[in-house]
Amino acid sequence: MKGRRILTILGHPAGDSFCAALEEAYSGAASAAGAEVSRLRLGDLAFDPILRQGYRSRMELEPDLQAARAAILAAEHLVFVYPIWWGSVPALLKGFLDRCFLPGFAFAYRSERQPLPDGLLKGRSGRLIVTSDTPGWFNWLVYGAPGHRMMTQTVLKFCGVKPVRRTVCAPIRHSTAEARARFLARAADAGYRDASP
After folding, report:
1. What pLDDT is attached to residue 3?
2. Number of domain units in the chain
3. The overall pTM is greater than 0.85
């Protein structure tokens, strides 16, 4: 059986971060299990992360964003790897979403009266691999996990991507080498499981 077409998107700006190591572990395991894996490292792309005029006028896509869109459309499974900073995603990833996931590409309204748009990325599934310094239980019970909800509900599912699964690695701060090895193994296991349709 042919493996899935998977696109990983590293949302941490540093290529030598622990998030990068998690993405590497996931990609390696998915590839070894037969998936066709493509990879985007947002820190290596050249684009303006600011949607300068909002939705009032069109901002031309840089070549790297055009290539990123083509990779998204070619994928069957989208994997975002990033840290939670200030309860949300890093500015680089948010800027990528603002510039790339625009009306006509990621979603579209059929009429002025339509309350919710059509998700144009339907047919794809997703996974979030997320690091955080905050313990997972505290993030859920006290903060309401705003970063997880934003990416799962108001970005990916809004655009038609579902199901969206999460692999949460926390807490990272003061984590031991043994704990980090477990996190890497968890990412690799997710890659192995995601490789098959």
Report:
1. 86
2. 1
3. yes
